[in-house]
Design goal:
The chain has one domain: TolB, C-terminal domain (Neuraminidase, 6 Propeller). The strands form 6 sheets. A 5-stranded mixed β-sheet has the order 1-23-22-21-20, with no helix packed on it. Strands 15, 16, 17, 18 and 19 form a 5-stranded antiparallel β-sheet that branches. By secondary structure, the protein is mainly beta. The two termini are 36 Å apart.
Length: 317
């Protein structure tokens, strides 16, 4: 399935009635049955990025000051300052997942330019916006189908998903020693580490499941995936809170809060308050530690949700 076809399918899912919609008021934003309210939150448009967006990260790439980096549909990485000012930072074909390394460089899931074959890969972007390939093939020389999400592991190495190939990979910080982590998760998408760094969470977009994989920092090895949260449809992005809970950014059910090891979830936003939310990140001191920022495939704005939560520390902070 090509990305454009996938987006069309998501739009159909988002617009289709769900069982929870029956009998709802015309202006209501319904929540799935069984999902309790996680507490009062406020939601607002934070920045206009002019297009659908997916990858989102906060760090200090090149400027020394905290900025938000967002990948928009097409070929742009934009940067956003804490006051919501948006500027173009880099050009790269079809950016998806984004992470910020401790040295300030961005790691981006994207494609080569069509003239270079257009194959999905991982790229590094320095503080001046210069793009260079980081990981171009799998450990057996295979090309990737859809490099979708990337995270920085607690030891500085990289972990990333190839959603189309149903694979999760790891690589050293500079892109060497690529290895298969697991091929047991279908359409792996969002990734996040536990606050203590001993577990990796992987969202399976098409199986209503979030998996946990043990992580050994000393060896940089991962264990086998086990079910952590089940019964939640279309989980795209994952964000770990400082308390060890997981924010589930779902394509069709809104933003949920779940606890690893439990299938009970609560709603942080109403189901359709954001059009096709994709990924999220908690703010730092500059952006507000209790603010959750969300990208979306169905709108041209970044949304800020004020919560009583805060994010787990990232390697880039």
């Amino acid at each position: 399935m090509k990305r454009a076809v996938l987006l069309g399918s998501l739009l159909s899912l988002a617009c289709a009635p769900s069982p929870g919609d029956a009998g709802a008021d015309a202006g209501a934003l319904p929540v799935d049955a069984g999902e309790a309210d996680a507490g009062a939150t406020s939601l607002e448009a934070f920045a206009d990025v002019g297009a659908s967006s997916e990858g989102i990260a906060i760090g200090t790439p090149g400027t020394g000051a905290s900025v938000m980096s967002v990948g928009t549909m097409g070929d742009r990485i934009v940067q956003i300052t804490p006051d919501g000012t948006t500027t173009e930072f880099a050009r790269i074909d079809s950016p998806v997942g984004i992470a910020v390394r401790a040295d300030g460089r961005l790691v981006v899931c994207a494609k080569h330019a069509p003239a270079d074959g257009g194959a999905p890969a991982l790229f590094s972007i320095d503080g001046a916006g210069a793009v260079s390939p980081l990981v171009e093939r799998g450990p057996s020389g295979e090309t990737f189908g859809l490099t979708n999400f990337v995270a920085i592991a607690p030891d500085g190495s990289l972990v990333f998903t190839d959603s189309m190939a149903n694979r999760v990979y790891r690589a050293d910080a500079e892109g060497a020693n690529v290895a298969l982590v697991t091929d047991a998760v279908t359409f792996p998408n969002g990734l996040s580490f536990s606050p203590d760094g001993t577990a990796l969470y992987v969202a399976s977009w098409d199986s209503q499941t979030v998996f946990t994989l043990p992580f050994d920092r000393a060896s940089s090895r991962y264990g086998e995936p086990v079910v952590s949260i089940g019964g939640v449809r279309n989980v795209d992005g994952l964000v770990t809170t400082a308390d060890g809970e997981l924010v589930l950014v779902t394509s069709t059910r809104g933003i949920l809060l779940g606890t690893p090891g439990s299938d009970t979830t609560s709603a942080l936003t109403a189901m359709r308050a954001i059009a096709l939310p994709a990924n999220g990140v908690f703010g730092d001191a500059a952006f507000g530690p209790n603010a959750l920022y969300l990208s979306a495939l169905g709108q041209g704005t970044i949304t800020r949700v004020m919560t009583e939560l805060s994010g787990a520390p990232l390697p880039s902070r």
